[in-house]
Design a protein that fits this description.
204 residues, two-stranded antiparallel sheet, alpha+beta, five-stranded antiparallel sheet, single chain
Length: 204
């Protein structure tokens, strides 16, 4: 099976939007720094301050352009997706896909922290479980694409053998979860292709 356009662009859009937010906050920080420097009047250092202000102003301009590009790319991708949905499917299914992707990731995510361990010095340490950390990393690749005739759920296979075993044990639970969210679709057993696991539902 091949990824749909939604499954290909979902994580890309989310990452670009987060980067755009950080760059926007960085721009605000630089702008505040510029205003602070402009209010500082030190005799004999005007040349240095002017040079610094020029550099910061140029940096602010480039960050503003970067923020615009980081917002423009996901906006264009979302518009393309919406047009495709409008022509071939349903706009409502697009928003259902986003919602179900988010909810399914929450359902799959495991608590990475193991039970607290007391050391010889009587200090309590909460350790990170590497198996669950690997599993949760793969969960970030999960996408649910809801369409009129079918629903496809894509899961990335974890890299470690123990995390893969955990995913295998959860297959029935995952199937039950996505079936409950899509009662009008019949889901067959999952099948693996490469490092991807697919659940496919067809309209009843």
């Amino acid at each position: 099976m091949k990824k749909t356009f939604f499954q290909t662009t979902y994580n890309l859009n989310a990452n670009l939007i987060v980067l755009a937010l950080f760059s926007f906050l960085f721009k605000i920080g630089i702008n505040l720094l510029i205003q602070m420097l402009e209010n500082i009047k030190l005799s004999g250092m005007q040349g240095l301050f002017t040079t610094i202000l020029d550099k910061l102003t140029a940096l602010e301009h480039y960050i503003q352009l970067l923020s615009f590009c980081l917002v423009l790319v996901p906006a264009l991708l979302v518009i393309i997706e919406l047009v495709q949905r409008f022509l071939k499917d349903s706009l409502w299914n697009y928003f259902k896909s986003i919602y179900q992707t988010s909810r399914t990731r929450q359902f799959l995510k495991q608590d990475e922290h193991s039970e607290p361990v007391n050391t010889i010095e009587n200090q309590t340490i909460t350790r990170i479980n590497p198996i669950l950390k690997s599993f949760n990393h793969s969960v970030l690749g999960c996408t649910v694409d809801v369409r009129k005739e079918n629903v496809t759920v894509l899961l990335a296979i974890p890299r470690t053998q123990q995390a893969q075993k955990l995913l295998k044990e959860m297959e029935d639970d995952i199937k039950e979860e996505i079936s409950s969210r899509n009662p009008n679709y019949y889901f067959s057993s999952p099948h693996r292709k490469g490092n991807k696991l697919w659940f496919t539902g067809t309209k009843r």
